[in-house]
Amino acid sequence: MKIARCTPAFQFGRTPDFGPRLRHPLAGFPAMAQLFEDFLPATNSSNLVTDLHEDTDHFHARFELPGVKKDAVKIELHERVLTVTAERVVKAGEKELSRTFTRSLALPEIVQEDGITAKLEDGILSVTLPKQESRKPKVISVN
Amino acid sequence: MNTTCTANSCAPFVGVTESLRKPRYSVANDNEAFEIEVELPGVSKSGLSIDLEDDILSVRGQLSARLPDSWKPLHCELSTLDYQLRLRVTTPVDAEKIEAKLEEGILKVTLPLKAAAQARRIEVA
Q: Average pLDDT of chain B?
């Protein structure tokens, strides 16, 4: 048996890298973010409010999508980046305006891509990202 | 990366009382009714209450999903606070005919104006 050098992909205590794509200047300060949003209506489209949680078997991503119908939500997975795009039709007097919201999430390698599921309920989109069985932390018993 | 989602992490702000937040809303009106649209993502029909007392219309929305304790937060932007919106209605409305509809996290309340409050066109004889 040969003992190989520990490769960078195999690090202990490594936190999943959902990375800078998710970083928002006001992340963690929703009230402040809301205040800013009230005064500076978003002109760009990357303003989807997002949450990310983890349990032993899954990652759970949640997106706030009030007023968005199920068929107006698109979830794409490309090169380990999950992108949620949603279109909301807002009435502005006589006219109907359409606004597009989008947010991307870089998935860590532990996510099993073909097991991802999504659900839209009460204006919240929940995406469940299962972890690969073979990559979960294991306990090795001592003989 | 170790942000925790607790009610305390959301400091009270403008229009936000101790453990409630003010939702985004818009008001439109025509000659017959006021139409109020309130954004309440995360609120289901059972967690919603709408009252008109004197001239205050109050909307309260309770978040339907409490996250399981086993979920470890990695990144938090969604607030865990419930919603409260209080609006003063200064024009007489027909309280019996108020209608409300909740769809995809958007509440639409229609407050029909009382006949006396509607604008009338006066024909010149």
A: 83
In a domain, A141, yes or no: no
Residue B82: alpha-carbon gap to chain centroid:
11
Q: SS3 sequence, chain A? A: CCCCCCCCCCCCCCCCCCCHHHCCCCCCCHHHHHHHHHHCCCCCCCCCCEEEEECCCEEEEEEECCCCCHHHEEEEEECCEEEEEEEEEEEECCEEEEEEEEEEEECCCCECHHHCEEEEECCEEEEEEEECHHHCCCCCCCC
A56 in a domain, yes or no?
yes
For the stretch A60-111, pLDDT in tens is 999 999 999 999 999 999 888 899 999 988 776 678 888 888 888 888 888 9
**d(CA A50, nearest CA chain B) in Å:** 6
Query: For position A31, what pLDDT does the model report?
Result: 62
Q: What is the CATH number of the domain that holds A89?
A: 2.60.40.790
Residue of chain B whose alpha carbon sits nearest to that of A67 = B104
A140: closest CA of chain B, how far (Å): 23
Residue A14 falls within a domain, yes or no? no
Q: How far apart are CA B51 and CA B28, in angstroms?
A: 19
A contacts of B105 (beta carbons < 8 Å): 64-67, 122-124
Q: Which residue type, as a one-letter code, is found at position B106?
A: I
Cα–Cα distance for residue pair B40/A124, rounded to 1 Å: 10
d(CA A54, CA B73): 6
Q: Which CATH architecture has domain B7-66+73-116?
A: Sandwich (2.60)
Instruction: List chain B residues with pLDDT less than 70.
Output: 1-18
